[in-house]
Amino acid sequence: MQQLWLVGTASAVPFIGFGFMDNAIMILAGEIIELKIGAIFSISTMAAAAIGNLISDVAGVGMGSYVEKVARKIGFKEPNLSPEQMDLRSTQIASNAGAAFGVSLGCFLGMFPLLFYSHHDDDDKCKCVAAEEE
């Protein structure tokens, strides 16, 4: 049981970093695209979000191995299991559950850019508070 816990934890940690990075980039890129490109080309909020997601996914592909390396450097490694143990259904479930939990937590934490946005009822769009002060 302890090994399954370690498998789940080892799977979760890199995905926390990935989810954080993915969501933060998507929010920031989507907002910039909506405010800058969307204003010029009249694209919808959903189109801006989709382009932000594209940018975030491309960044994730490039940075995914980096996140895993950092997680390993700080000491999070898969437990030393035999190939037979790795093939067990319980090991697969623990690994997938850890990854799902990690990416969920990371995505939640990656919403931090939203703390810097304020909602205005008059135009029904979110704008960066810093941009309003200029």
UniProtKB/TrEMBL annotation:
GO terms for cellular component: membrane; mitochondrion. Keywords: Membrane, Transmembrane, Transmembrane helix. It is found in: Membrane. Its main location: membrane. It is a multi-pass membrane protein. It holds the Pfam family TMEM65. The keyword Transmembrane applies. The keyword Transmembrane helix applies. The chain crosses the membrane at residues 6-25, 37-55, 93-117. This is Transmembrane protein 65. It comes from Guillardia theta (strain CCMP2712).
